[in-house]
Design brief:
Layout lengths: L2 H5 L2 E7 L5 H18 L4 E6 L2 H11 L4 E2 H10 L4 E6 L6 H16 L6 E4 L15 H10 L9 E7 L8 H12 L5 E5 L6 H10 L4 E6 L6 H7 L7 H7 L3 E4 L8 H16 L9
Parallel strand pairs: 1-2, 1-4, 2-3, 4-5, 6-7, 6-8, 8-9
Helix pairs in contact: 2-11, 6-11
């Protein structure tokens, strides 16, 4: 292969935290990857997970080998790819996104001539409409609206996010405000490992005299957190707490990756990264 042909080799790495649930992997991650393949037929599309635990579990249990973000880029470099774009399927720019961003920065700034061009696209929620950037929150809310049940004053939807100690946890508070601004007064957001808490939401549901609650994961995949923390039978699950508080509870057990409007957002973020460097990122 001559150099001219090598330069034309372009790839997209679709990075997610990952899941050990095979059906969920197919419905929520593979479906997004396939959407990206259809939108970018001239690019090789590869999968990478950031969770070493999930990668190890899949290898030991199923004999399935999945690259982490480092291995995926090293493999593309070894295979002579010159132009690489990374699309994270993360919801917010938190710890897992930072892990990818840090490694991409090493390639963009330090590993000379590894790639002619390397760019990192943004996760689902990043820009808030400031400085001529799109409002990722408003766009995500419009996509979410396609899976919400019909509005009813006696009913509410409670979205479960992941959350954590990272400052990006503030995205869930922003999402709540943006939902209210968009007219979704009976849609509430809580997180498993951060703020807002479920107890705060339960108080608000009581104030509004809500009778029925639909629990819905605001996560890429309906995996461990959705199965146990949200819909589990244990006393501490969101479902159990809501039932104990006197609400009728329905569960919408699908990850955001199944929502075609959400898939389209990731495609759009990738298009933006390919056409110009995303806000806050440097080109190679």
């Amino acid at each position: 292969m001559n150099q001219e042909q090598a330069v034309k080799k372009k790839a997209i790495v679709v990075v997610s935290f990952g899941t050990s649930y095979p059906e969920t992997l197919m419905l929520n991650i593979e479906s997004v990857e396939n959407r990206i393949r259809a939108a970018f037929p001239d690019y090789e599309v590869r999968r990478a997970f950031t969770s070493r635990t999930i990668i190890k579990r899949l290898a030991e249990r199923d004999g399935v080998r999945i690259d982490n973000e480092r291995q995926a880029l090293e493999r593309l470099q070894a295979e002579g790819y010159q132009e690489v774009y990374i699309q994270p399927l993360h919801i917010v720019p938190g710890a897992e996104y930072d892990k990818v961003k840090g490694f991409v920065s090493q390639y963009a700034q330090g590993k000379e001539k590894a790639f002619e061009k390397i760019r990192l696209a943004r996760p689902l929620l990043y820009c808030m409409g400031q400085d001529n950037h799109p409002d990722d929150y408003e766009i995500a809310i419009q996509a979410l609206a396609t899976q919400l049940p019909e509005a009813d004053s006696a009913s509410a939807v409670v979205l479960m996010g992941h959350g954590g100690m990272h400052p990006a946890n503030a995205a869930y508070g922003v999402l709540q405000l943006k939902l209210e601004d968009a007219g979704f007064s009976n849609v509430f957001v809580y997180t498993v490992e951060g703020f807002p808490s479920l107890s705060r939401i339960i108080n608000k549901l009581k104030q509004k005299q809500v009778k029925k609650v639909t629990l819905m994961p605001f996560l890429l995949v309906a995996g461990d957190h959705a199965t146990n923390d949200m819909a589990g039978e244990a006393e501490g699950s969101a479902k159990s707490q809501l039932l104990a508080a006197g609400f009728e509870v329905d569960v919408y057990f699908r990850g955001l990756g199944e929502n075609t409007a959400i898939q389209d957002i990731y495609v759009d973020h990738l298009k933006a990264a390919i056409s110009h460097p995303p806000h806050g990122h440097r080109d190679a």
